[in-house]
Amino acid sequence: MEEKHEKIVAKIKDTTSNPAPLGLLGFGMTTVLLNIHNTGYYELGAMILAMGIFYGGLAQVFAGWMEWKKGNTFGTVAFSSYGLFWLSLVGLLVAPKLGMWDATSDGLMGWYFFFWGFFTFCMFIGTLRINRSLQVVFGTLVILFWLLAIRDWAGSEVVGKIAGWEGIICGLSAIYGAVAQVLNEVYDKVVLPIGPVKKK
Hints:
- This protein is an all-alpha fold and 200 residues long.
- Helices cover 70% and strands 0% of the residues.
- It has six helices and no strands.
- The protein has helices at 20-38, 46-69, 73-94, 106-127, 132-154, 157-187.
- Helix 1 runs antiparallel to helix 6 (157-187), helix 4 (106-127) packs antiparallel against helix 5 (132-154) and helix 5 runs antiparallel to helix 6 (157-187).
């Protein structure tokens, strides 16, 4: 007589917290503060550089690592990359002052921002499968990077100021997305909408 064996599949539920708000806040707050500088409101100083290292930089790298633990490839690549973007940007600004290497020309900085914009455009395509909030963040970030590239290539102060105001909008959209996720989870309902979320 043939024996029948039942197959038992155990599914482990992920109960770890959502790291995305940390990453979005690190990105958003640092972006707003830098771009207030780009509008000409205040000088580039220690406050922006420290935010670029610790909150825009390290906090996003930590968020990317936590997204990796959750199996989220998009979150891992996005947060880790933008965290390292902030660290590299601070390095480009500070290292020449410390005599570590020569300052980068405006033309080369234009290419730096252009390729970050290209990377962001590729990531933006991924957001079309996620939610409206991230689409706004990544869409405005593409525009910001390419405006900064044009500013550096053309040496245009006007384009730089336009980039500053556009960057403030980009940063605020990331802050909104972070706060929305936190409040929606805390209240267990939609307090701040982020748009349709992909179905798994």
